[in-house]
Amino acid sequence: MNIKRRNFIKASGLVTTGIFIPGLLKAHEVLPANNTDKILIITQLTGGNDGLNTVVPYRNDHYYSARPQIAVPASAVLKLDDELGLNPRLMGFKSLYDAGKMAVLNNVGYPEPDRSHFRSMDIWHSASASDEYLSTGWIGRLLEEHCRNGSKPSYALELDDTLSLALKGADTKGLALKDPKRLYGSTIDPFISDLNRLHAEEHGQDQASYLYKTLAETISSAEYIYQTSRIYQSSKTYPDHALGKQLKTIAELIVSGLDTRVYYVSHGSFDTHTQQADKQGKLLGELGDAVNVFFDDLRSTGRDQDVLLMTFSEFGRRVVENASQGTDHGTANQVFLIGPGLKRPGIYNPGPNLDDLDEGDLRFTLDFRDLYATLLKQWLSTDPAAVLPGTHSLLNVI
Amino acid sequence: MLSEPEKIKHLLNRAAYGNTPDWWSHPADAAAVLKQLFDTSMTCKPLQVVGTDQLAEWQLQKQQDPGAFQKVVTQQFKDQTKTLNTLWMTGMMTDQAVLREKLAVFWHNHFAVRVNNPYFNQQYLDVIRRNALGNFGVMLREVSKTPAMLNFLNNQQNRKDHPNENFAREVMELFTLGRDNYTEQDIKEAARAFTGWGFDKEGQYKFRPALHDFGAKTLLGKTGNFDGDDVLSILLEQKACARFVTRKVYRYFVDEQVDESRVEALADEFYQSGYDIASLLRTIFSAPWFYEEKLVGNKIKSPNDLLVGMFRTVPVSFTNEQALPFLQKMLDQVLLFPPNVAGWPGGRAWIDSSSLLTRMQLPGIIYYDKALRVQPKAELSEMGEGKGQQMMEQMLKKLAVQKLGAKADWAGLLKTLDGNAITEAEIWTKIIAKPIVPANLGLLKKYTLSDDPEDRLKSLVVHSMGLPEYQLC
Lengths: 398, 473
Hints:
A: 398 residues; three-stranded antiparallel sheet; 12 helices; B: 22 helices; 4% strand
């Protein structure tokens, strides 16, 4: 065992229990008992998920008349209450809902909604107003706030090869990786490691120092994440698709005791202009099943209380279906919050009012930045004012 | 004080794509290089991908079978815009008019537009390239009337009694004055003046009097029955406009830390000249302060600067025609696809852990044709998913694990440089902006040992391009 490894094990509190076995550890044995940091998983439903066919207003005549071809029949929905029911493919979410681990926030959006994918995604990532352009993301700014207190880029991880705007701060950015081993592999290139070693002491303010600092953080985070990830390997069977794989990796990293507080994953594409039922159904099924196994995995390791998963999409879709059994770009949409730590599980606010549309689109009743402020303040113990422009009212949900 | 060769290199790093081999036998002083930069950028070769008759043909198809048209056109639009992108970038990599193209990318970032229609993109690109070194006022007027801009900022929907303020807002906030130099009321009034600006089926600007609000408007202290052109004139009359644009030019070509007194003096001159872009740039690139040591290598290259600089140093051709857009996507700057109307943020925003590793590994991937193994995010079409969307995703997946099929042309470098005799320091001095970092020279030596002079030279160039210092200009 080399020095680094030994220090690492000491730091992670495992030496005292003396049960470090890389790989197939039994989960309950490795849990550092004092680790109660709250963790947020953001699941981006890319492409604009059709909210009306996700949480279905199954008693609403307007819904059925607007969607003669693609409405989910009332008999098929998984009923949540007397008005709303889940898409039948969301069985996984239904069991989480029944177990009191899910909140449905309806009509989340922002004023003057933009119907372009990239612009609306930009707005959600940067937490800007629709006529405002911010070049940093809200998680990136959160990261910068925490780095002042000594946190590292591994505070915020995206499970992908490239980093989204959401995780970019001005000088500090989160880390993107699909697989801890692969990222580690690319940082142990001899030329790159040698370069890093030669420049370990660069602390200047100039651009070259910024590059070397980013390189050093990448290399040390990659090693830290890879080594930590080997502590716990899940024995649960996750569904065999990209999201299942990513959530499995996240569960392993959480249970292994990684210091990451925000994980970011994407699932899609929900851009269902044609033949929506099959495409959306498949994606929702994958989402529900994977998230369900994920929380099951976390529960069996005792970490589920500390984990909250949020879904969002850049916009919902128009109320009226189009001519191709699909839907076009719309506005407000629901957000799911999932985890046993919710104060108010269930349906948080009434579903969309289909009698009062804005040129055929749903009106938002919850501003997504109020949701962000709530997550920052009540889940991640951060002053929202340090991260979000403007002032925000908090929701009473977590 | 910089020596004359150092001055030349610094100038080329900012006004061109670096001290690339085509400049190695350059004139002896920076002033002469500057003259040559302007001389070679005098003319502008138009880029054409879509014929003028194409719009009419699309119209016809749309009338005959809207459903089929939608499917075909989604893919065709994307393909042709990518082809235009590739054509533009290939020009940067091979033509002499580097100063013009550098400026065109700057203006593309300033008047950032993102639309689907390749014909609109082609018109728009023609406007910014033609006017890149011309007059800012003329460019502002022309670009404001392109279908691309009218479409992107919703001016087609801006009608008398139903104003759409999008264009009026951005023209003040992002194109001319900058925040705090106008009021919300100014935007409302300006929006009324732009009512009726639109374009016809031939893709030509058209003023539609029936939709125009002919009433009196008051903005920025003036009252009159203004139309859109009057508003642009009023904006150009504001000193704030010259200041805002000059500041942006300074941050892009000189330093992100703005020296306010310098910008003020430059803005005065720019305003007095009636917004002559070439003379503003001449002043900047001839100023003694432009050649201060602290400015050398203190800018992070945009992906465009990085890629074009590499490909001007060691030319490549790709068997995969999607390779250039793919590389741009990988590094997060696809020309003609800016993130929003504010353009790419630039500077440190280019660098995060993944993009830095990708940038450092890219020379090896390209010149040794290694697999990339990194997959950029899927790209959503604003026009529907169609077949194109799936094909694109498939291709991204395939390209990510496969090779880009780059064919490097080393002949030029091998002829000019002797792989036996050339030192690490000489290569560094040629292709890297920053002064030599001795520790890195040792590293270059260690990793490029070879008995074969050709292999050594290639390895030396590729490893130098993989250094963090190569990311700077």
